[in-house]
Amino acid sequence: MRQFSFRSFLFVTPVIFAVLVNSCSTSTAPQSGGTASGGGLVVPSTVNFGAVSLGQTKDTLLSIFNENADTVTITGDATSTAALVDSNFTHSLSIAGNTYKNIEVAFTPTAQALMATDSIQYENNGKHYVAAMTFESNGSGTTGGGPSAMLVVPATVDFGSLPIGQWKDTSIILVNTGALTITSSSLSGTEARDTNFNLPVVLASAGYITVHIQFNPSAVGPRSVNDTIHYTSGGTKNTAVIALVATGSQTVTTPGPGSTYTYSVDTNGTALPPSTYTVVSNTLSFQGKTNVVEIRDDTGGLQYYHVESNGDLSVFVDFNTLAPLPLGLPTAWLTIPLGSHQTTTNLLYDTSITYNSLPVTIQLVDTGRYVGPSQVPAAKKVFQTDQGSISVALTASTFGFAVASAETVVNIWYAKQIAFYPKRRDIAVTNAAALGIAPSNVTTNYLLTSYTVH
Predict the structure, then answer these.
(1) Do 78 and 19 fall within a single domain?
(2) Which residue of 29, 167, 196, 276 is 20 to 30 Å from 208, comparing CA positions?
(3) Is residue 211 part of a domain?
(4) Residue 306, beta-bridge partner list
């Protein structure tokens, strides 16, 4: 009976077996793939509006260019002052590779705002970037005033609908137009957390910083907390306020009994018969957790997962059923940090055996990672998902030198809309050629074709 939905972990077994029955020799550790980096959005660094009287509004047309081959998605922007208006990104905007978009920006200089910054936040291949533009005017016909260092923050951060008692983590970008020091932050309520400034943070001129904030609604309905960031610049104390909002809901959404998910399956370019997963229960008490979701796959095997209070996704695995050898392998909940965004690494198994009079240490380590948000086209729809991965790596070493290694990786794209994943990719990589057995390099893709959620 299978107790783990990620089938590629079966490929750990050959390496354990090889360590026990083959002589030891050297091997290099497998290299896992990565996400392409590089922002690619090109914007003007400085835009001078020239002579504009104070209080007079002047607008201009600008071109922003995506110099990469990949599409970039602009998710929002923030301006350092209300005197600068950029309303081009009230909704997300995608720019295809090697193309440009024209945007319109308006500036109304005042005695206190002869200079302003517009920070454009965008994503490329699941990574977050900022492109900043400086706008300036000489404030013709008036005296006084001048640019002052300011911290540019989003006016509002909406965490969306959250179950009561569940912490949700998100990252935001703070941009500064001059050198400053953030000294602390204060919250108007206990439903939010901002622990980024327990110690002062110094930002150089025209820099930015990515920080994490959390929200946990205490009641049903709209909830809000103001996050006030205190900072100093040029000896002057300033504040920037972010409104943190969320809508509290009663329960964590999980698929009910009878819900089904059917996938097209492809392994190394070879199509396999469709695979259907059926929810048996979503209120099961199992292996120390309650409200566990029990799934039956197309072979009749049972699998278990659990949505944690912070939004992380945990899956249960019994390694003894995957590698039935007399090694005393563990059972464990493995976690994909979709909510906390914190990479986790756990030593699951650590033992020593003697083979051919040599001491051999065998270790099993799992690592959970958050990759980022993405959109997945599946089942004739487009799902907003959180992408994450679990990897399990096995190493065998003697006298501190690795003699065998294996790593299996499962990538998932989890959609809250259906409380399941519309897409999954399993990768099994086994470095065992030096041990006299053929390596197993397997990539299996699952793509949702139809579903019914109760």
Answers:
(1) no
(2) 167
(3) yes
(4) 314
Same domain, 213 and 149: yes
Residue 52 lies in a domain: yes
CA angle 322, 323, 329 (to 5 degrees): 100
Domain for residue 182, yes or no? yes
Q: Grade residue 322 by pLDDT with cuts at 50, 70 and 90.
A: low
Task: Decide if pLDDT at 437 tops 60.
Answer: no
User: Mapping DSSP to helix (H, G, I), strand (E, B) and coil, where does residue 14 land?
Assistant: helix
User: Could you report the per-residue pLDDT of 364-389, keeping only the tens digit for each?
Assistant: 899 999 999 899 999 999 998 999 99
What's the distance, Cα to Cα, between the start and end of the chain in Å? 25
Residue 206: CA count within 13 A, CB half-sphere: 12
H or E stretch at 2:
none
The residues pairing with 421 across neighbouring beta strands, listed in sequence order, are none
pTM: 0.51
Question: In the listed set 217, 249, 281, which residue is the last one of a domain according to the structure?
Answer: 249
DSSP string, 81-138: STTEE--TTSS-EEE-TTEEEEEEEEE--BTTBSEEEEEEEEEETTEEEEEEEEEE--
Q: Length of the chain in residues, anyone? A: 454
Same domain, 221 and 279: no
Question: For residue 227, what are the domain limits?
Answer: 41-249
pLDDT tens for residues 89-136?
888 889 988 888 889 898 887 765 677 888 888 888 888 888 888 887
At 372, phi and psi to the nearest 5?
A: 145, 175
CB 274 within 8 A of CB 262: yes
Residues 6+ apart with CB under 8 A from 318: 3, 4, 331
Q: Within a domain: residue 2?
A: no
Is-contact 157 123, C-beta < 8 A?
no
Tell me, yes or no, whether 284 and 407 share the same domain: yes
Among residues 249, 278, 306, which one ends one of the domains? Answer: 249
Return the minimum-mean-pLDDT range out of 9-18, 117-126, 182-191, 271-280.
9-18
- 12 or 450, which is more confident: 450
Domain count, the chain: 2
- Tokens 């993405």 found at: 374
SS3 at position 67: coil
